[in-house]
Specification:
The chain is α+β, with helices and mostly antiparallel strands. It is globular and about 65 Å long. Strand 18 and strand 19 form a beta hairpin. The protein is built from 19 helices and 24 strands.
């Protein structure tokens, strides 16, 4: 039973609930809305994407709602266990999810085709045509690329299309009845005009003209959700929405919701990386860097997406489909070896965290260039590297030094390989960084992934107390920001998102900053040169080797407890 003020905070709904649907886990996080660094309860539910018969990655909508209900039930149980009370309403709620993809509905709200996630790389012709027409990079995973590919392919459902949204936008719609989207998530659907805070009007017109010959009468603006900025009211939880989250009926309707956001935006919030010259690297199933820009880029680059912060400021995004999953698979091999060998710590088999600790410690002992080893973590296609599909590989020359230390350093370098290719493009554009913030399970083992990332980027990398909290906490903070704008003082209501994060969330937070070491910078540069050259071997493997089974990648890194 809690002895502090938390029970009254929960019962009086001075709280903010954040829910995020990640690639392998749905998480719920309840915070004190007056002090969002105080986490009151958490819940989660593991789920996995499916590889459909038409070779697309998807999640069923049934699994969305069963997973959300399971994560919410676990959060309620955790609140009761820790504080002796069960929440029945909240001061504010926020929903976040993996960005991009394609959720298409007809006029009656029926799903037209199974959810097509960001992992799908079947939109190449559409992305190329759009990039040329718009004069900027439109990535394969963006919603407009999925829509245009369906138009190009004359898919039957296109004629009945009435509404298009992301996973976060869909969940929010069902909870509130409102078809809206936070500006950060919306910027991964269609290009945003940061000056107006809406979809770029010129590009909307260009798209309608582009689609006219294939889908006459297209008005793409009518298909997309309304765009809202951080702190704007985005609806209230309906009775139907409350039952979806909590089928027991305990949850009452009426709580306000903040605009739904994508995982990139909530990662920026969770790391206080919303000001120019700051950025964050989020590592999980995928890995991506978000860099807040001081000025527009001089040229369009296929490696760089132009998106926004949840407040609408322009951001350069380097997104890679493959993150820490292959690294985690190798850790699983060594975990099993330790178990088979009877290795123990304090009389018990090595836990997953202990395995990562040992392997990451070995990586620090490796040669700066990983001894000539190369690791490709490509479980899926990687557009930055020009790969339609992936084949994970370890490659070495006869004169390389195969040791455990070099192997693990190569695996960690492999996580950062394609990311570094994109970051080199930003460096050539003259983009400068004061700090990058590391975010995700890979940074739980202190000082290792952080140091090697600093060497890979040749920039200081910070890791804070919230590094492993994830986007559920980030969207809870955005929900708390909404509540503050409705309940705070005049100054608090007028505070920008950046000021709110600086003064109300991160003031006094412990942050450890690691400067790049010269040997790591030089070593990674040598590794990356070989990595780039070796991509021809990766492409040859894709061409020559078909998958032996239906792929089901799992982000084991999220299971580091």
């Amino acid at each position: 039973m809690s002895t502090d003020a938390s029970p009254s905070t929960i019962l009086e709904a001075r709280t903010a609930l954040g829910i995020e649907l990640g690639s392998t886990r749905i998480k719920a996080c309840l915070v004190d809305a007056d002090d969002p660094t105080t986490v009151l309860a958490t819940g989660s539910h593991e789920w996995e994407n499916e590889f459909t018969e038409d070779r697309r990655w998807s999640y069923s909508l049934e699994s969305v709602w069963s997973g959300l209900a399971a994560a919410y039930a676990e959060l309620v149980a955790d609140a009761e266990r820790r504080h002796g009370v069960r929440p029945t309403t909240f001061g504010a709620i926020g929903v976040s999810a993996m960005m991009h993809g394609y959720l298409a509905f007809d006029e009656q709200g029926g799903l037209l085709v199974p959810f097509r996630t960001w992992r799908n790389t079947s939109t190449g012709p559409a992305a190329a045509e759009l990039s040329t027409a718009f004069g900027l990079n439109i990535p394969l995973r963006w919603s407009i690329a999925h829509l245009h590919q369906a138009v190009i392919d004359a898919e039957p459902h296109v004629e009945r299309l009435d509404f298009l949204t992301t996973l976060a936008g869909y969940v929010h719609w069902r909870l509130t009845g409102r078809k809206v989207l936070g500006i950060g998530d919306a910027s991964g659907m269609f290009p945003i005009d940061s000056a107006t805070g809406g979809y770029d009007p010129d590009l909307l017109v260009r798209y309608d003209a582009l689609a006219e010959g294939r889908r006459p009468g297209t008005r793409v603006a009518e298909l997309l959700p309304e765009v809202l900025g951080a702190g704007e009211h985005a609806g209230e939880l309906t009775a139907e929405g409350a039952m979806l989250l909590d089928p027991t009926g305990e949850l009452r309707p009426g709580a306000p919701l903040c605009p739904p956001e994508g995982d990139a935006g909530t990662g920026m919030v969770a790391t206080n990386s919303v000001a120019p010259r700051t950025g964050n690297v989020s590592a999980g199933t995928s890995i991506f860097a978000m860099v807040v820009l001081e000025r527009p880029l001089a040229s369009a680059h296929h490696e760089i997406d132009l998106v926004t912060t949840p407040a609408g400021d322009p951001v350069a995004m380097v997104h890679c489909n493959n993150g820490a999953s292959e690294l985690a698979a190798w850790a699983g091999v060594f975990e099993r070896f330790a178990e088979a060998a009877g290795a123990t710590r304090d009389g018990a088999p090595l836990a997953r965290d202990a395995v990562f600790e040992v392997l990451f410690g070995e990586a620090l002992a490796g040669e700066p260039d990983a001894g000539g080893l190369l690791a490709y973590n490509t479980l899926a296609g990687e557009p930055i590297a020009g790969l339609d599909e992936g084949r994970p590989m370890v490659v070495r020359t006869p004169d390389s030094r195969l040791t455990l230390a070099n192997l693990m350093r190569a695996q960690l370098y492999g996580v950062y390989g394609t990311l570094a290719l994109g970051m080199r493009v930003l460096s050539a554009e003259g983009v400068e960084l004061d700090r990058m913030f590391g975010h995700g399970g890979i940074f739980r083992t202190a000082g290792v992934a952080q140091r090697l990332l600093a060497g890979a980027l040749d920039a200081p990398v910070a890791v804070g107390e919230t590094a492993a909290e994830g986007g559920a906490w980030g969207i809870a903070v955005l929900a708390a920001y909404l509540r503050e704008r409705g309940h705070g003082t005049d100054d608090e209501r007028d505070a920008s998102l950046g000021a709110y994060l600086d003064h109300r969330v991160f003031a006094g937070s412990a942050v450890e900053v690691v400067e790049p070491e010269a040997s790591d910078v030089a070593g990674f540069a040598a590794y990356l040169e070989r990595y780039r050259a070796g991509l021809v071997a990766e492409a040859a493997a894709v061409a020559a080797l078909a998958p032996t089974t239906t792929p089901t990648p799992e982000d084991e890194s999220t299971k580091q407890k």
